[in-house]
Amino acid sequence: MDEMEEELKCPVCGSFFREPIILPCSHNICLACARNILVQTPDAESPQSSRASGSGVSDYDYLDLDKMSLYSEADSGYGSYGGFVSAPTTPCQKSPNGVRVFPPSMPPPQQAQHHLLPHTGVLPPVPRNSCLTCPQCHRSLTLDDRGLRGFPKNRVLEGVVDRYQQSKAAALKCQLCEKSPREATVMCEQCDVFYCDPCRLRCHPPRGPLAKHRLVPPAQGRISRRASPRKISTCTEHELENLSMYCVQCKTPVCYQCLEDGKHSTHEVKALGAMWKLHKGQLSQALNVLSDRATEAKEFLVQLRNMVQHIQENGVEFEACLVAQCDALIEALNRRKAQLLSRVTKEHEHKLSVVRDQISHCTVKLRQTTGLMEYCLEVIKENDPSGFLQISDALIRRVHMTENQWGKGSLTPRMSSDFDLTLDSGPLLQTIHQLDFVQMKVPAAPILQLEECCTQTSSATLSWKQPPLSTIAVDGYILELDDGTGGQFREVYVGTEMICTVDGLHFNSTYKSRVKAFNSSGVGQYSKTLVMQTSEMSLPSYGSQTLATVAWFTFDSASAHPDIILSNDNLTVTCNSYDDRVVMGNTGFSRGVHYWEMTIDRYDNHPDPAFGVARADVMKDVMLGKDDKAWAMYVDNNRSWFMHNNSHTNRTDGGISKGATVGVLLDFTRGILLFLINDEQQGPVAFNTLEGMYYPAISLNRNVQVTLHSGLPIPDFYTPGESEAAGSVC
């Protein structure tokens, strides 16, 4: 009940309601607070609003009240009402619901006695042209001669406040303390107010008329207040009359006198008790809906709180993963750094080795050259011509040879001191700058849009969407259906569209469908499974007999051979080629019993049309039955044969001509296929052990034209087997 406490507090004083009155805007206010926020307006500026007892409510807002000097301190935090109780420069406060209010000053001594006598029926007079403004919606109202008595008292709210206060086990508080209420020490039974000692001495002195009031302990006062009888509501127009009827037009309780000579005399009225029960029921219904919303909100809050915890856990986990990934990158960079440093070290050692070898070599050669030079100089100093000439040629050759060993031109080092290696860090820096998060999660489960999903006789349309808060990229969707018998799911659509129509389903069958999304990271979870029921089609009733459930179909122009010519709403077929061409029906069958006929409209030059059933991938440019995808009977003007996989069996006399009728009966309850010509069975059972999906089919050339008749009842001579499921014929 703690959440209800704010509903029980006055928007002006911030305390629990005491003698609440109902304003025409449906808001409540304490009677004493209403007197304290009255504004007296000059006669010339009196707003032309409705009286308290009127049916309309003034819409004056704070702009109008500014003109009437409601407060004029330029929103400085202080204001004055210009009324009869509020002193200027009274500090403005805020009530618990955030409404700006101006608490009254203490009433003058001569008015205090009236202020503390709320139950005597004697109220101080209200100044003329007084204006009251609702502190919540800011609508203003000019009071009439009755003043605040023109507003009805909210006895229900007063009772709820009493019960709420009685349910609290805390000590009773003083009702006149302005800031932090102190514990009450006494209660005045006449004033119905709890006082602490300071407030009792200040507001309830033991002299004058107040000396006769009875002061009791707070606990006793609570008991007496609880035991006091509930006050009977009286009419605001006729104070001596009890409210006994309800005006439907004005939506307010009224008395009998209001109906006789008041403004409600021409209005529709109803019994107060009946309307009380009616409105209680309406409120209960509204509360049930609101309760459901509140329950949903509580569950949603639990979900949000769980999300907060999950976000925190996922955040910590994600941060740890990010740090680990960055550490791995740093480790890889350090390993590469070590490898590059190793290469630099090798290059450094290689350069030093080459230069040192060159230094050693040059040092040896220089020492040899210097020795030779010094020796030659000493030889030149000798004065013996014959001895000099004996060795001069050899010395000259040695000098030239030594000079040639140094090479021509200037000496150059074998190795440069610069390192020719340059680290190409540009791509890596660019990659680091481009390092960002990518979507690596699989998509969330799609949501099937039930309002857009529907089924027809042999098809189903499904629509789905991504969850509203999902931001994960989706590359496509996979739609799966079962086989209509509770078997395994199979893929029927893969693509980017979010709506798909699946054709070729069984009549009167129950299918389960589901969809999932995928992206580059993988395949997401399945959506919720949707159960769909395909419809059935029946022949009309004749008298008291209802014919069996049957399936209607036509020839399928989309899958027919290009040489096929269709007309009559795809019920009549012929061909523009001399070769046999195949056309199939637009509906496949895998369960039930089905019978259809074809009338021969044209038959020239004795051709061999073939009638039967086929798989969806049957060959279309050969006679029906030539491959292993078709089971057929081909017939000429004298005889017929059954054919499957180019195997001819059961030659039977009897052919067709113009006007003849060929019937095909497919019974999955027994797994057989048989044929009729002119309502007579042609040969034995043609094929058996048929299982799976089959389409009605026919092959013909330009010499034949036939018309299809589908959805026919089973011939009288034939008794089908037991169905796999009652009522299932497809």
TrEMBL record:
PROSITE patterns: B302_SPRY, COS, FN3, ZF_BBOX, ZF_RING_1. Residues 169-218, 230-272 form the B box-type domain. SUPFAM superfamilies: B-box zinc-binding domain, Concanavalin A-like lectins/glucanases, Fibronectin type III, RING/U-box. Residues 380-438 form the COS domain. Its main location: cytoplasm. Gene3D superfamilies: 1.20.5.170, 2.60.120.920, 4.10.830.40, Classic Zinc Finger, Immunoglobulins, Zinc/RING finger domain, C3HC4 (zinc finger). GO terms for cellular component: cytoplasm; cytoskeleton. Residues 442-537 form the Fibronectin type-III domain. SMART domains: BBC, BBOX, FN3, RING, SPRY. Residues 533-717 form the B30.2/SPRY domain. CDD domains: Bbox1_TRIM9_C-I, FN3, RING-HC_TRIM9, SPRY_PRY_TRIM67_9. The keyword Transcription regulation does not apply. Pfam families: ANCHR-like_BBOX (PF22586), fn3 (PF00041), SPRY (PF00622), zf-B_box (PF00643), zf-RING_UBOX (PF13445). GO terms for molecular function: zinc ion binding. It is found in: Cytoplasm, Cytoskeleton. Keywords: Coiled coil, Cytoplasm, Cytoskeleton, Metal-binding, Repeat, Ubl conjugation pathway, Zinc, Zinc-finger. This is E3 ubiquitin-protein ligase TRIM9 isoform X1. The lineage of its organism: Eukaryota, Metazoa, Chordata, Craniata, Vertebrata.
